[in-house]
Amino acid sequence: MIQLPDLIAAVEGEADDVLGKLTRAVELSGQLSELGDHLVGHFVDAARREGLSWAEIGESMGVTKQAAQKRFVPRESPELTKPSMDRYTQRSRRVIALARHHARFSERIGTEHLLLGLLDESGGLAAKTIAKLEAGDGSTRLAVLHRLDKEAKQRPDKQPYTTHCKKALELAVREALRLGHMFIGTEHILLGALLVEEGTAAAVLNATGVTHAAAAAHVQQIVNEPRPALPGA
């Protein structure tokens, strides 16, 4: 259990002046609130996988079925309001832009377009992880392009992100928090997409040998690798 004295000590140790401490306290409060939201979301997802109804989940949370669904079921929309894009790295922001580009002839922006964006951002850890794990060189890109060839080519005026795509980005934040990272990198987007088993990206990746377990292990190995010491350090 997190105790208030521990939080106060953490803030005291991270800032020198009173206003700096206040700013850090506000930031930390937001982070704790987000952690709480994702903690509840994790167990809501687990309950749904066990076949529990939204009415049962809402009753357990002390809210109505409709309130539980509104809070935890992503809806198609053209905007990405959660999480804040401020925490996305530059590479991750480019992935989102590339996903929209790949979906320019599609009715919706889906996880398959997100996957192509990850592959295009070749310098990112996600693309490197896929290249390391996929069964054959370029097999993931070929498989997802094959899927896209079968889609209707008709773009609406307001092109929405699918519920699966929005869920993948929500889970990307959860994966970052699980790993103790306060930024959203391409690797987190990959892990989030792999967790949305109903999405096209997860289906393609699993078919080419890229599983969540393998990708998570590779990401952690790379992130935890000791950095070479700088000369004179």
Task: Provide a compact summary of the structure.
By secondary structure, the protein is mostly helical.
Question: Could you explain the architecture of this structure?
Answer:
It is a single chain. The chain has two domains: 4-72, no CATH class; 85-222, Clp, N-terminal domain (Double Clp-N motif, Orthogonal Bundle). Helix 8 (139-149) packs across helix 11 (200-207). By secondary structure, the chain is an all-alpha fold. It has helices at 4-14, 18-49, 54-61, 65-72, 90-102, 111-120, 125-133, 139-149, 163-178, 186-195, 200-207, 212-223. The model has no long low-confidence stretch (mean pLDDT 87). The chain is globular and about 55 Å long. Pfam families: Clp_N. InterPro entries: Clp_N_dom_sf, Clp_R_N, CLPT1/2. It comes from Lentzea guizhouensis.
